[in-house]
Amino acid sequence: NSRLIAWLESEGGVYLAESSTWGEAPHPLAISTETVDEITNESSGRGLLARRSINDGDELLKIPMDLCITRKSARKALGKDALQDGINEYLAIACQLIHEKYVLGDESEWDAYMGVLPEVEEVNPTFTWKDEDLAFLDGSPVVAATRSLQMKLRREYDALLGGQDGLIAKFPDRFPAEHFTYENWVWAFTMLFSRAIRLRNLQVGERLAMVPYADLINHSAFSGAFIDARESGDWLFKNGEEEVILYADRGYRQMEQVYISYGQKSNAELLLLYGFALERNPYNSVDVTVSIAPRTAALAAANEGIEVDPLAQEKVEFLASVGRDQTVDFPCYADRYPVEMLEFLRLMMMTPEDTRGKPLADFDYSRTISPANEAAVLSSVVEAVKYQLNLYPQSEEDDANIIKDKALFRLLSYNQRMAVRHRRNEKRLLKRTL
């Protein structure tokens, strides 16, 4: 931490001292090497604390853009012939992270920053979990999302770096195979997903950036603070340079942990990308899959006992016209009904008695169509949610008993404890939907 602070001060002129100096107020924040979740008592890694009382609207930090790692800095470090114009920001920054940490090491100008970046095991997003840990999430939609992301990362590594046309083969001096391994690729994306910040007010538009020091701040679903960028200098004299800036969204007591918002993310997203889930999360949701095959004449002919739906072909065409598939994942929330699911099912449950000759496109599916249609819709919602609940090998009560037995619960690994809490919260949310 001291090396990072010294580097920020010497290379970027960032004032982080607790005492004031000419033209600079005392810096309001201090690095905590270990923070703890107030509800679960689990470690939440490093964080930033209020060094003194902070008021709503106070400036908390400003970091020069020159100290940030971006696609622009990656192309400068590794060559524009290798990382060509238009390369995906995540891919470019991942390459620079590997370059700085593993290729250059202590010769990197970002060495002090690399030194505070955690290892994969300290973050533990689900896409890095072992199969035995992921098995604790059986039944949860997080498993499919995890497998999908794992395959995507592998494909992108192979496409950009591997093979005869990859950067390792083309530029072996800049992309040495012993350092640009898939293991290090996963580390780089663990850093990106859990720490990179999308800055929206830059002169060139929004950009993704790794922002030293600012990325130490932890997430709260109840925070309204977001890190952004602005042109540096005072209101009268702008110098054309840009800096990352953060203001307090509320007051903080001395030694209270300061939070920002990573966005309105469900626990599934947080666990997948950040390696943690929240016990209290107003944005939590569980995806429920609804798949309905309209009873077309072809389907009825192939399956004895299925009656033809006279509106089947029109439903298929209507779904295509609005960009919907016949299989859709809908989020169910704890505090509201799945409106999008209801609209989808109202369409799929339409009968000739409901349409009375009118085309399906003429109806407002955000409203009740008919008592019979609404009854069929609600019955389908219940069926879909019950089906999702039945995918879990354990009941909510089983999970509650595991958590309640503190001695047994502590025998589980961190990942396994997170998984048990997460699957229990998913089941509770689904039951509330019923």
TrEMBL record:
The cross-references to Gene3D superfamilies, in alphabetical order and at most eight, read: Rubisco LSMT, substrate-binding domain, set domain protein methyltransferase, domain 1
Q: MF terms per GO, please?
A: protein-lysine N-methyltransferase activity
Mind listing the UniProt keywords for this protein, alphabetically?
Methyltransferase, S-adenosyl-L-methionine, Transferase
Question: Example GO biological process term?
Answer: methylation
UniProt xrefs under InterPro entries: Rubisco_LSMT_subst-bd (IPR015353), Rubisco_LSMT_subst-bd_sf (IPR036464), SET_dom (IPR001214), SET_dom_sf (IPR046341), SET_RBCMT (IPR044431), SETD3_SETD6_MTase (IPR050600)
Q: Which domain of life is it from?
A: Eukaryota
List the CDD domains hit by this protein, alphabetically.
SET_RBCMT (cd19179)
Residue stretches making up the SET domain: 27-263
Record-linked Pfam families: Rubis-subs-bind, SET
Q: Which PANTHER family match?
A: RIBULOSE-1,5-BISPHOSPHATE CARBOXYLASE_OXYGENASE SMALL SUBUNIT N-METHYLTRANSFERASE I-RELATED, UNCHARACTERIZED PUTATIVE METHYLTRANSFERASE
Q: What is this protein called?
A: Rubisco small subunit small subunit n-methyltransferase
Species of provenance: Thalassiosira pseudonana (Marine diatom)
Q: What is the lineage of its organism?
A: Eukaryota, Sar, Stramenopiles, Ochrophyta, Bacillariophyta
